[in-house]
Amino acid sequence: MSVAFGDGPVPGFNAPEPRLRLRDDAPPVYAAVAREPPDTVLAELPLGQPDFDLRAMYYSTFHWRRLVNGYSGFTPVHYGPLVAALGSPVVDGERAWTALRDAGATAVIVHEGAYVDGGGGRLSAALEAHGARELFRDAQDVLLTLPAP
Asked: What is the phi/psi pair of residue 38, to 5°?
């Protein structure tokens, strides 16, 4: 069973699944996040596009870990630099790493399938080259943990 979601295209990205799943049918990566410590601070990539940020907020209710990205009628000052570093279809690994560290993220979900031409896989690999460790992988969703600064 699912809940209907917006169907607009996301420029430069593969569109997310056009529905939100209920808890019993949720993407398995969110159960993996729920097994992480309660003080986990999660970033979901891509970040900065409403189609992706709204999903991240919805699925956060399945794990209740703090979330770096989100969506509201208010844009906090720290969010602009995050979107600048992490919101484009092609993300520089060094810049992504710095932005995630500066935001206090301790874990990252990379929805690799959202990126075109293998960009998601390259992003995951770049984060791993900086010390991130893969905790979980299911299809195109990867959960990485970031080492303590």
From this structure: -60, -25
Tell me whether residue 38 is in a domain.
yes
Is 4 within a domain? no
Number of domains in the chain: 1
* CA 59 and chain centroid, separation: 11
- How far apart are the C-alpha atoms of 116 and 13, rounded to whole Å? 6
Alpha helices in the chain (DSSP H): 29-34, 50-60, 79-86, 93-103, 119-129
- The token pair that represents 141 in the structure block: 């969703």
Q: Which three-class secondary structure state does DSSP give residue 108?
A: strand
Whether the bond into 46 is cis, omega within 30 of 0 = yes
* 124, 107 Cβ separation under 8 angstroms: no
The pTM of this model reads 0.91
**Which residues are paired to 67 by β-bridges?**
42
Convert the pLDDT of each residue in 59-106 to its tens digit: 999 999 999 997 777 788 888 899 999 999 999 999 999 999 999 999
